[in-house]
Amino acid sequence: MSAVPSGAVRRRAWRPLRRAGRRTNLGLGLLLLGALASGGLLFAAGTPGPATAARVAHGVTGLGVLVLAPWKSVVVLRAARLHSASLALLGLLAVCLASGVVQVLGGYGRVLGVSPVQVHVGSAVGLLGFGVVHVLRHRPVGLSRRDASRRRLLVSGAFGLAAAATWAVAELTDRRISRGAAARIATGSHRLPPAAIPATTWLLDRVPALDRARHRVRVDGVDVTAAALTSRGTPVAARLDCTSGWFADATWTGVPLAALLDPGRVAAARSVVVTSVTGYRRRFPAAEVGALWLATAVEGRPLTAGTGAPVRLVAPGRRGFWWVKWVASVELDDRPAVAQPPFPLQ
Ligand code: HEM
Ligand SMILES: Nc1nc2c(c(=O)[nH]1)N[C@H]1C(S)=C(S)[C@@H](COP(=O)(O)O)O[C@H]1N2
Ligand SMILES: [Mo]
């Protein structure tokens, strides 16, 4: 594709749009990579500071795509032919943008069992696939020295400001019109009352049928019954903040792992792995054993099967996917806590 629009499109396009071309594609690619990266960071962030930074970066890069839309449409309109993979890319982008905005403005809800964030992340992953195909098929854009000229940098800065302004408009609209907006926290999640905590699976996990009276958790080689955990439990207030777009502040009843493990063995280990009967597992730094709880009840009521009965992990300060349900074992380990995929795979 040439940098200068040709033929009918060139004649019809509004003057500033006639420059649509290589730099439009480059800018769009960078924005999409920025949105993917900041979205991933927003998912991983557990604390308000990093979550806010990632959320602003995500809103600016995600909505910044819209600022370049007029230029990209000139590029698309003058293309000799449109490949079906390109149309799929466009469709996924529309779904991704729409579901992102619905999550922000619409409050938490599910339609046919899926939340807007699930549609959003699913379409973003699809975008990545078709995006790679798209970039490989079309001549990859190269950088030239002139891209770093003063004029170019000023133009890029103007686009950056327009993207930030688009995000600010979305944010102000959110605060004014959204019912749930006032209750949104740094990660973007909407508040739910503790009684409404939904049974949530990360991807493909299934709720197992477990016998409350017989269940045991193997803690560093020693079996601990669910009944013993219940009788030793003390209250712990914590915020369960799920990446599917909701959070709930509740009081759980549980026993800290530190009270079940030998301090000498904890000191000698680097990580502690909490594994579900389903195989779902998360690895934590060993030093965190005082901040991880094996819980058997929430708000004074025993856990339900869907929310982790008989025993689940409560990990205050960590996103919901760390709160392993249906815990089968707790193991001390020599490997560092980072020796795991950043997100669960089941
Ligand atoms: C290229 C891909 C992506 C694009 C274009 C995109 C775009 C957007 C847009 C436009 C919004 C609404 C922002 C607002 O109105 O303030 C949004 C929100 C959101 N996105 Fe993405 N996104 C992408 C990828 C991802 C990924 C990979 C994740 C997570 C792994 C993610 C997670 C989220 C979350 C949690 C929100 C809600 C944030 C909030 O409440 O402010 N996004 N996204
Ligand atoms: N074994 C297992 N534990 C799990 C999950 C899962 O799919 N399997 N989902 C996690 C996610 S994503 C969240 S948000 C919380 C949800 O807990 P809830 O079902 O009580 O809402 O459990 C976490 N623990
Ligand atoms: Mo979650």
From TrEMBL:
Q: Where does the record place the Oxidoreductase molybdopterin-binding domain?
A: 207-336
Q: Which InterPro entries match?
A: OxRdtase_Mopterin-bd_dom (IPR000572), OxRdtase_Mopterin-bd_sf (IPR036374)
Q: Does the keyword NADP apply?
A: no
User: Do you know which Pfam families this protein is assigned to?
Assistant: Oxidored_molyb
Record keywords, A-Z: Membrane, Transmembrane, Transmembrane helix
Q: Would the keyword Ribonucleoprotein turn up in this protein's UniProt record?
A: no
Question: Membrane-spanning residues where?
Answer: 63-80, 87-105, 117-136, 152-170
Q: Output this protein's name.
A: Oxidoreductase molybdopterin binding domain-containing protein
Organism listed in the record = Friedmanniella luteola
